[in-house]
Amino acid sequence: MSDQTAIVKQIDWSAGFQVVAGHMNLGLTEPSPETKEFWEGVARDELQLKRCRGCRRYLHPRRMACPDCHKAGVEWAPASGTGKVYSFSTIHRAPNPELAKSVPYCVGIVHLREDVYLFTRFIVAQGTEPEIGDPAELEFRILENGQKLPVFAVSNRQA
């Protein structure tokens, strides 16, 4: 066992759900100071994004300032909840026991109508995968860890 593995195993994760990527523990799915309003919106079944007060561009919930006009003034604004599949991966092997009953499932990036990219769970018909560019519609679901999260249902394949 490496020194890094020993350190990870000593961390007490009993207060929340681990976010795991392979052998690495990435932390818990929980609000941070810059995303507090995003998570409050999720609790109300609302998708909230940051928006620049200067140029009105929508921003990812973790952004602190606008990358276009470089202003630090941001506000929270409701998002449309519509977008398209930008990328995805189908998970066939559960990274932890809580997800074992859900495999296979799809995760990936949704490109929102507001020109913001979010990592998400894609909801697809069993035995299918989304296609890049497929329309995706916001839903709120309580997932395996008991946490309500925004997910995107992939529907109506493009012609």
Describe this structure in words.
- This protein has 159 residues and is mostly beta strands.
- It has helices at 3-10, 36-43; strands spanning 18-21, 24-28, 48-52, 58-59, 74-78, 82-91, 105-112, 117-123, 135-142, 148-154.
- The chain has three domains: 1-28, no CATH class; 31-79, no CATH class; 81-159, OB fold (Dihydrolipoamide Acetyltransferase, E2P) (Beta Barrel), CATH 2.40.50.
- The strands form three sheets. Strands 6-7-8-10-9 form a five-stranded mixed barrel. A three-stranded antiparallel β-sheet has the order 4-3-5.
- A hairpin with a 4-residue loop joins β7 (105-112) and β8 (117-123).
- The longest helix is centred in the first third of the chain and has 8 residues, at 3-10.
- The chain is globular, with a radius of gyration of 17 Å.
Short description:
The protein is mainly β and about 160 residues long. The protein has two helices and ten strands, in the order αββαββββββββ.
Order of helices and strands: HEEHEEEEEEEE
Count of strand segments: 10
What top-tier CATH class of the largest domain fits best? Mainly Beta
Q: CA-to-CA gap between the ends?
A: 52 Å
Shape: globular
Strand order, main sheet: write it out. 6-7-8-10-9
Strand content: 35-45%
Helix content: 10-25%
The CATH topology annotation of the largest domain reads as OB fold (Dihydrolipoamide Acetyltransferase, E2P)
Oligomeric organization of the protein chains: single chain
Q: Which CATH-level-2 architecture of the largest domain?
A: Beta Barrel
Main sheet overview: 5 strands, mixed, barrel
H/I helix tally:
2
Radius of gyration: 17 Å
Sheet/helix structural class: mainly beta
